[in-house]
Design goal:
The chain is of the alpha+beta class. Strands 1, 2, 3, 4, 5 and 6 form a 6-stranded antiparallel sheet that branches. Strand 1 and strand 2 form a beta hairpin. Helix 1 runs antiparallel to helix 2 and helix 7 packs across helix 8. The relative contact order is 0.10.
Length: about 250
C-alpha cells in the first residue's frame, strides 16, 4: 500500500505507468514488480505499508479489491487514509504491549479498508469527460513512445488538445512540465539499461530517444549527477559488494 503524502511521482507497475500526486494511493498485489520515478528537481514523500492478511472464503463485493486479483489498484484524492496509515505505522514502531498494539493495528486496517471501499465506489460513479479521455490517450502514447521524437505542438494537434491544456495538465497532475516528464521517463529507462545490459552508451542513447550520445550524456549527468559510464560502474560496484558479503 503506497500513499503519496506530498509531491508527485510516477510508478511503473507490471510494465504500466501511473501518475500519482499528493493524496493518491496505490495498492500493489504480492509479487508484482514495481518501482518509483521522481523528477530530478522535484521532491516526493510516500507512506508505505507492506502486510499479509488472511481473508475469509467469502468476501463481500465492496471489499473484493483486498483479494489481490488485480496487479494494482489506484485511488485518487484519498486524504482521509493518510492519518490512519500513519497511525498503523506508529503503533507498529512504538513497541507497546503486544495485545494492545495488535488490536490498534487491526482496527487501523479495518478503517483503511472501509475508506478504500468508499473511495472505489465514488470513483465508479465518476463519468470520464471527453477531455480526460483524450488526456489519458495522450499520456499512454507518451509512455509507449518516449523513445521517439516528441513535440508538444504536434501532440496537441494529433490528440485535439491545445498545447496550453497539455502544459496545464502535466503541471496539475504531476507537478512537472511535459518535457520534464519525457526526460524523466528516458533517464529512468536509460538507468535500467545501464544496470541490466551491456549495451554501449551510444546504443542506449538511441534506444531512449536521443540521436546524439553526447547530448544524452549531458542530460543524464544533469539528471543523476554523474556520467552514464560512472553510473554503470558504481552500480557494478554495489553488485560486487553484495556478492562479497553473500
Amino acid at each position: 500500500m503506497n500513499y503519496v503524502t506530498s509531491g508527485n511521482c510516477v510508478m511503473e507497475i507490471d510494465g504500466m505507468l501511473f501518475m500519482l500526486k499528493s493524496g493518491d494511493l496505490v495498492l500493489v498485489s504480492p509479487g508484482v514488480a514495481h518501482y518509483f520515478m521522481v523528477g530530478a528537481q522535484r521532491g516526493c514523500s510516500i507512506t508505505q505499508l507492506e502486510y499479509k492478511i488472511a481473508l475469509p472464503e467469502c468476501v463481500d463485493e465492496p471489499f473484493r479489491f483486498m483479494c489481490g486479483q488485480e496487479a494494482s489498484i489506484q485511488l485518487n484524492d484519498c486524504y482521509s487514509i493518510e492519518n490512519v496509515m500513519e497511525g498503523v505505522c506508529r503503533y507498529y514502531r512504538e513497541g507497546k504491549d503486544e495485545d494492545y498494539a495488535n488490536a490498534q493495528i487491526e482496527f487501523g486496517f479495518a478503517q483503511i479498508y472501509l475508506e478504500m471501499a468508499h473511495a472505489l465506489k465514488q470513483n465508479d460513479k465518476k463519468e470520464n469527460s471527453e477531455l480526460s479521455n483524450r488526456q489519458g490517450n495522450l499520456l499512454r502514447y507518451i509512455n509507449q513512445n518516449y523513445d521517439m521524437k516528441l513535440n508538444i505542438e504536434q501532440l496537441a494537434e494529433e490528440f485535439g488538445i491545445s498545447s496550453r491544456s497539455i502544459r496545464k495538465y502535466f503541471e496539475t497532475a504531476l507537478g512537472m512540465s511535459c518535457t520534464e516528464y519525457i526526460t524523466m521517463l528516458r533517464m529512468e529507462k536509460a538507468k535500467e539499461m545501464l544496470w541490466n545490459t551491456r549495451k554501449n552508451i551510444t546504443d542506449i542513447a538511441v534506444d531512449v530517444g536521443y540521436s546524439s550520445s553526447q547530448y544524452f550524456s549531458n542530460v543524464f549527468s544533469a539528471y543523476t549527477g554523474m556520467s552514464p559510464g560512472k553510473f554503470r560502474n558504481s552500480w557494478r560496484g554495489i553488485i560486487a559488494e553484495e556478492k562479497l558479503y553473500e
